[in-house]
Amino acid sequence: MRFMVFVRSPKPMAALNGDALLRAGVLLDAGDLVPDALGVSGYWLIDVRDHEEAVERIRRIPLPACVVEIRQVAVV
Amino acid sequence: MGATTSVHRTIDAVWRMESAKVIAALARYTRDVGLAEEMAQDALVAALEQWPTEGVPRNPGAWLMTTAKRRSIDQIRRRENFNRKVEEIGRDVQEATPDASEGIEDEIGDDLLSLIFTACHPVLGTEARVALTLKMLGGLKTEEIARAFLVSDATVAQRIVRAKKALADAGVPFEVPEGPELAPRLASVLEVLYLIFNEGYSATQGDDWLRPELCAEALRLGRVLAELAPKEAEVHGLVALMEIQASRTRARTGPGGEPVLLLDQDRGKWDWLLIGRGLKALERAEALNQPPGPYYVQAALAACHGRARRAEDTDWQRIATLYGVLAQISPSPIVELNRAVALSMAFGPAAGLALVDEIAGEKALKGYHLLPSVRGDFLLKLGRTEEAKAEFEKAATLTRNEREKTLLLARAAACT
C-alpha cells in the first residue's frame, strides 16, 4: 500500500531525517511543496504493508515540531 | 477496533520493521543464526504478552533487542560452552542495552548484510533460502510464507528448521563474504530475491493478497540491499528489473484474468513512477562501469519497453543488440529465441526466421511450444501461409495452456 505523508515543518524536507525510509526500502519519492503562510511543507511517498506500519515508520523519524498527515493513496 | 487488536496490529508492524535487525544483531553476538531467530521470536512472544497491558514502549525496537539478548544469555547458559559465550554476550548486553531509547537503526547495516548473505547461502537449497529470507529478513510469519507458496504451514516450518540446522552443520560464518567468494554469494542472494519476486509476479490468479505482496517484499529487500551494497552494479540491475516489471502489474491481465502480451498492454495502466525508479536504478548500475551482468542486461531490455510510451516507439534494434549481449553472458536457446523475435521486429521476419532455423535443433527447445509459434509468426509475415499453419498447429499440440492452445488453433485456422 502506498501512503502519502504530508509534513508541515519549519525546515525543508531535505533537512529532515528521511534516510531511514530510504534504508528500509520503503521510500518511493520525496519532495518540497511551495511554502505557504504556515511554513514549509513537503511529502514522502512510501510503500508499506499497512497503515500501522506507515505510522510506526514515521513515528521513528526524529522530526522537529511538525504537523504530519498520513493518507493512503488510492489505487486506480 | 479494540485496544488489544490495535496493539496487536502495531506489534505486527513493529515486528516486520525490526525483526531482521534484531536477528542480525543477535546473530553477530551469538554467531548462531538459528539461535538468534529463536530468541527474537521469544522476544516477540514477550511483546505480545506485555504490550497489550503495559502499552507499546517508546522505542519498541530497542525493547525487542534487549529482551531477545537477555533471553539469549539465558539460553546459552544452558549450553556447554556457556562460560566463553556468556562472557562475550553479557559484556555486549551491558554495553548495548542500558539506554533503551538508543536507536539501533544506524549501526545495523553490516549485520543486516551478513544476515542476507547467510540466509541465501548456497549450502541451502532454493526453497530453504527463499523461506529463510522471507522469515528472517521479510519478517513474514511461517503461515504467511506457506500461504504465499501454496504449501502447508508444517512444510514451511520444516524447511526453516532444516535450513537453520544445515547452516549450523556447515559452520557457515556470520559475515559478509569478501574476495573471490563475494561474486557467487551475491549471485545467490540476487537469485533468491528474483525468485521471490517472480513467485509473486506470476501469480495472476487467486485473491490471496500475499502473492502480490511477495513482489513488494522482494522489491523492498532489493532496495535495502542496494543501499547496503551500493557499489554492486548487479544489485542495482536487479532492482531496476523488478521496478520496471512491477510497473506493468495492472496491465498484465485483462478483465477476465487472461494474460495480456506486452505489446498489447494499455500503457496508461503502467506505473510510471516505478518505471522512473527503475530507470534511475539502471543509471546507478551504469555509473559503476562494471562489466554487464545478466540482471543489468535484462533490466536494460525492460527499460527499452519502459521508455516507449507507445508500442510502436520501441527501440527494437537496441533490444536485439542487448539480447546479443545477454546471449554471451548467459547463453541459452531461449535467449536466442527472444533475440530472433527482436531481430524480426528490427529488421524484418526473414532475419528472425534465419536465427530460429539456426537454433531449431537445440535440445532445450524440443517440445517448447514457443519455437513453432514464433516460427509460424515469421512465416505468416513472409506470406508462407501453409507452412505457418503447420507451425501453429504444432505449437497448439505442445502447449499445456488451454487459452494459448485456443489462440494458436485460431491463428492456424486464419492461415488461408
TrEMBL record, chain A:
Domain of life: Bacteria
InterPro entries, A to Z: Dimeric_a/b-barrel (IPR011008)
Name of the protein described by the UniProt record: YCII-related domain-containing protein
Organism: Lentzea alba
UniProtKB/TrEMBL annotation, chain B:
UniProt-recorded name of the protein: RNA polymerase sigma factor
InterPro entries associated with the record: DUF6596, RNA_pol_sigma-70_dom, RNA_pol_sigma70_r2, RNA_pol_sigma70_r4_t2, RNA_pol_sigma_r2, RNA_pol_sigma_r3/r4-like, WH-like_DNA-bd_sf
Claim: Hydrolase is one of the keywords in the record: no
Entry's family note: Belongs to the sigma-70 factor family. ECF subfamily.
Keyword line: Sigma factor, Transcription, Transcription regulation
Pfam families per record: DUF6596 (PF20239), Sigma70_r2 (PF04542), Sigma70_r4_2 (PF08281)
Domain DUF6596: 185-285
Start and end residues of each RNA polymerase sigma factor 70 region 4 type domain: 117-167
NCBIfam families (alphabetical): sigma70-ECF
GO terms (BP aspect): DNA-templated transcription initiation
Signal peptide: none
GO molecular function: DNA binding; sigma factor activity
Domain named RNA polymerase sigma-70 region: residues: 21-80
Lipoprotein keyword on record: no
